[in-house]
Specification:
homohexamer, alpha+beta, 4-stranded antiparallel sheet
Chain lengths: ~140, ~140, ~140, ~140, ~140, ~140
Amino acid sequence: MALSNERLIGKMAMLGVLDESYLPEIEKLGWKYCVGKAGSMDSQKVVAAIETAAKSENIIQTGIYRETHSLYHAIMEAFHGVTRGQVQLGTVLRTVGLRFIVVRGNPYEKKEEGDWVAVALYGTIGAPVKGLEHEAIGLGINHI
Amino acid sequence: MALSNERLIGKMAMLGVLDESYLPEIEKLGWKYCVGKAGSMDSQKVVAAIETAAKSENIIQTGIYRETHSLYHAIMEAFHGVTRGQVQLGTVLRTVGLRFIVVRGNPYEKKEEGDWVAVALYGTIGAPVKGLEHEAIGLGINHI
Amino acid sequence: MALSNERLIGKMAMLGVLDESYLPEIEKLGWKYCVGKAGSMDSQKVVAAIETAAKSENIIQTGIYRETHSLYHAIMEAFHGVTRGQVQLGTVLRTVGLRFIVVRGNPYEKKEEGDWVAVALYGTIGAPVKGLEHEAIGLGINHI
Amino acid sequence: MALSNERLIGKMAMLGVLDESYLPEIEKLGWKYCVGKAGSMDSQKVVAAIETAAKSENIIQTGIYRETHSLYHAIMEAFHGVTRGQVQLGTVLRTVGLRFIVVRGNPYEKKEEGDWVAVALYGTIGAPVKGLEHEAIGLGINHI
Amino acid sequence: MALSNERLIGKMAMLGVLDESYLPEIEKLGWKYCVGKAGSMDSQKVVAAIETAAKSENIIQTGIYRETHSLYHAIMEAFHGVTRGQVQLGTVLRTVGLRFIVVRGNPYEKKEEGDWVAVALYGTIGAPVKGLEHEAIGLGINHI
Amino acid sequence: MALSNERLIGKMAMLGVLDESYLPEIEKLGWKYCVGKAGSMDSQKVVAAIETAAKSENIIQTGIYRETHSLYHAIMEAFHGVTRGQVQLGTVLRTVGLRFIVVRGNPYEKKEEGDWVAVALYGTIGAPVKGLEHEAIGLGINHI
């Protein structure tokens, strides 16, 4: 059941979202991934941007709810890291500017573990005024 | 007030905790930092391990409460990313094995912004059985 | 003070919202109740639909704040079961389609316990796309 | 993708935990399930009791982490309904006496949706004094 | 239904816990109240101390669960103000030293609103080291 | 590091917001403060009203993000006391009418502790119907 040290999906997703030059490492493993940006005071727009990218780039299958369900919870978990307490943006007068990555692969040694999804977020959070912000990071991982 | 692209304290802390070979980059900026490990089902032990390391390595001043207060909230925010919903470990039957880094520096272009602290966590969270776990990440940033 | 096995208000409310054929059992006890439906991405609309039904069908008295206060908290508690973590719908890009029941009665053996209110919810929660959803349930109980 | 009206796993799990006479309906579908009881001020003991039952009765496979992961999150979601705000028991001076059911099956019309798990909880929550309690309910659903 | 300006139970409870010289104002209204102190890293001990005081000084009736239920939720709400995010103390390595007051009375102009309970808390929260702490306040109000 | 009994910033802020006649006590200490009112179902408007007042009355410096950051977290902490569980207003169908005070000063015996900010809130929370409301209080304290 152990995690494989060469296939730590969370670490690779986070490195990939922090530094684009790392993305070829993810490709080498034969894993699917997509990257994008989302900036908004509306938390639902950030969720939608990530879901749309993951579907249009075929990271998850559109016609199967279990895949959407898995991704949704991974996004929400990553959002906890970014928002740190309340999964809210505009309603508490703050906004985000985020890069995101969605990675799909099996990080475990056993084949039976199947595919997992990792959503990593990196960017800024703060008042809706340029400069009044600091960095924020989130990572969500789920079995698909 | 803008963040300096060369001194993104959250990104550097996260890269440093994910990959030790990145630590010299933090030193080059003249910033203080310390790294360590903490594994436990007792959430308070993880908090204590980080606080103790940061104090014994003089990242924060022991005799000034405002510094302890700043670090404590940064730790709690990083914990939100790791725990994603409830800042609890053993009480919901899960355990963590984490590497941590505490970095102190000014990530803004203006000197007047003074020192900030970043706490980055990376490791695993899961059932108290080896292998029944996935990765988790957290980042907390606060002004000192 | 013990709960009466024949008057378990939470169980009866839940059975009533899951299966209409159970409603006469609630009537037999001489308890007041109302049922309805609410579907929305706006969480406040769901709260409003339940409050309006309970008031217009005289489950609670409109002119007494303590009754509204009691119902409101029972609704919010039921919402925790449906939302499981964040009492939010549209702001995290999800919608619900719910049946609800509000039951008023004394589930305890002692008369002095007076009236209590139970709010039970049953339906689906998911993405704002038909089929991308699973079931959800909530129950809130409060003294009136 | 739609839910099948004859195989609403959440409704069936909840009916089964409320009323034992309903259990044969679940068996008819060929679904696996297990029932049990857990009473404690220690929230981790309740989680452990459900996990242990589900594993020893082969509802989920012990050797595959993704199955444990799926069950764990379903348990935590069901706990939200029972605890309604803080997933805590003894630390906020309250205790539970719960019946639980774990059901595994596919509630969707499409075969490709695969297995899902539903955890339903019903019982009482209150002060650690007999009688000072009311009923509580929770339901968690996850893809396996 | 309006609140009476002369009987603002929350304001009076808070003033009473901040400044003992204000307590006779509460007595003048013929309201019951009790005051006490509780200091601990164990959140349940703080809850227990308030409940015990309120029962032994007959602010609430011991034999009626609805009164205990009402008080419990008022205490938990007051705790939210003190803990600001997670209703936890020792598990996140912090401790409190609190004065508390429990006041029972009708703050509304209408007699039909009956009795309400207000729990006000004032003191310090911080690390389990003298001086590493700041002030904290909480107020919970519920109908009895 | 100890708090000074003559300069308990949280107590003074709370007394000041409960009773205007107390404000000269704060002035005597040479501390800056501002008071105001905010009533809304939009939580972000309440946050904005407090931030705007604190900036326009020079309690915090507009050009330094660390000061805005400190105030923001103090406001959010005070909001936890008012909202007691979910930092939400309109989305859960409730509204507030609040008086607020922002106080800046050093409540500790040591000069090195520097300035801290206290945000105290007092008013009513309830349904968006006059009279259907009770009192609420919140206090947030942060180092600047």
